[in-house]
Structure prediction request, 312 residues.
Amino acid sequence: MKVLITGGAGFIGSHLSHSFLKKGDEVTVIDNLITGNEKNIYDLLNNRLFKFYKEDILMFDFSRLLGFDLIYDLASPASPAVFEKMSLEILKVNSLGLFRLLDFFIESKSKRMIFASTSEVYGDPLEHPQKETYFGNVNSYGPRSCYDEGKRFAEAIIFSYIKKYKTDIRIARIFNTYGPYMNKADGRVISNFINQALDNRPLTVYGDGSQTRSCCYITDMIDGLLNLGALPGIEGEVVNIGNPEEKSILEIAKLIKGMTKSNSEIKFMSIGLDDPKKRRPDITKAKKILKWEPKISLVEGLEKTIDYFKNI
Ligand code: UDP
Prediction:
């Protein structure tokens, strides 16, 4: 099978690239490395089944490529810590970049596409847990808008392409994900807390830490994304992929402090505007249509992630 992964050198994208290559598939990656890292795919660069273009999909000359069996679009910065600095890049890649990729998808007669959307389409949710049918509570004019509205617009673009071209595109609403090959410095909660704890620096809890997140270990996320790309009969479906094990940020800080046997103190800091107060996926639909549910508990996933950060 021939697979194209945009953003294939990022955290989730590089795991996906490795998975397809292990199965003997051909993988092409386009990634401008704005947040991805070539180190994530170093071991693949000499693989004859792997092709890497260090380019931006906004400028990429798609006429160089033939059609693919499967396209995964993961080309977007995704950490709230970069939303301010990369807001225009985020808006452009999820609109202009997506239009270019979709036009290539249609013209090249590629067969199927998976788009990486996000739990952020639910904003600061008033419905809990979040089902795919929830329309969200999103601020269109604030620090998270570039990502939240970027992905919402992207979903609207995809809906229109499906209607116009009767084509096979599926949307994954990806919830918080963590594990090895996360960027140590991208500002996300799990990587921040683990690295702060390992260095005995204060664990920076934003707000009072009562906001919740439900974190999915990377191998579970990859299994969900693979099923979404592999199964027949789910054209046009939008599906939450995440782990419903919900914890407050303060609980996660204490858990990581304990697991790393760290002397770090917990330091409460100011919280950004519109930071969602709670988040947990309803995965009823994923269980049903993807025949999937996460297997790795938070403690088990944290153990593996702590080991990874200890050894890099
Ligand atoms: N957070 C925190 N300390 C950090 C990083 C994040 O308390 O050093 C909080 C953040 O305010 C949010 C949650 O942890 O409530 C998850 O943040 P992250 O940036 O990982 O992703 P988000 O779920 O907000 O997209």
